[in-house]
Amino acid sequence: xxxxxxxxxxxxxxxRDTSGVLSPFNFSRRVTGEKDVQFKVMYCxxxxxxxxxxxxxxxxxxxxxxxxxxxxxxVTEVGSKVxxxxxxxxxxxxxxxxxxxxxxxxxxxxxxxxxxxxxxYNGVYTDGTPTYGGYSDIMVTNEHYVVHWPENLRMEAAxxxxxxxxxxxxxxxYGLDKPGMHIGVVGLGGLGHMAVKxxxxxxxxxxxISTSASKRDEAMDRLGADSFLVSRDxxxxxxxxxxxDGIIDTVSAIHPLLPxxxxxxxxxxxxxxxxxxxxxxxxxxPLLLGGKLVAGSAIGGMKETQEMVxxxxxxxxxxxxxxxxxxxxxxxxxxxxxxDVKYRFVLDIGNTLKKN
Length: 356
Known about the structure:
This is Enoyl reductase (ER) domain-containing protein. The chain is α/β, with parallel strands linked by helices.
């Protein structure tokens, strides 16, 4: 492909204001730089954070906004100094497209904790231009923030790049990935169902903890959890007290932590990956009396993200998805708001994104 110095024409769907309604949008990407990978987007997951961002619920939205940070596609062009990718490769881009590359976090493959990280959309790139995400036909991304997509992994499994890494990383980092351990997963949505799948693949015993008894069959029969607790049932919760090595808490609503802390063994770890909008109450006595830990975790660095998709490919771990066409996106977002999806929508960008 011939290189020109003009920007690359791109097309996607964007939110224009806090209504969050998406509509067709013509824009430009930067020309492929020497360390950049340009790729045709094939699939993009719809993440719950897309909903918050398009409606400015986190008070930092830049419009027009092209969402999407679970992006899988095929390389169409590489810069002259790109070493890891070639035209035709299947690739993925997750939540990050930039970081400072010189702080302690970046040096330790923790770009996800870099204070100067650049988000895949609703961010500002180093050249001062806004970042636009994967609800679009092409992406141009520095190769450092691109992962190889395993050949045997369906490209529709794009939500691995956010929901997957968000649950894989804390299981690994906090040592909750050892066969024979007993792990709890709170909430059975986009994040929760991935936590169950990874924890099972690590060889642990898994208990799903939910407010909704109706999710028992889903958890046990479909996802392979070993047991199920209704968090609102004091007898069930009491019966399981002190039984878990660790808990991955995926819930983003306000909820009590004490019942969860009571489920942990001595030195057990409660790791938060959901983001409630208001502070939660943290009872300290049960932490002191059991040497217990409450921690947090956000996505993962690039090295770990590659490790995660490779692991998913090897163990055939894929999210449960509903694939929809691009022009269905606003309906999908409305349904997502009502939790009317099992468990992730994925946009079929490559086949259904048409220029208007």
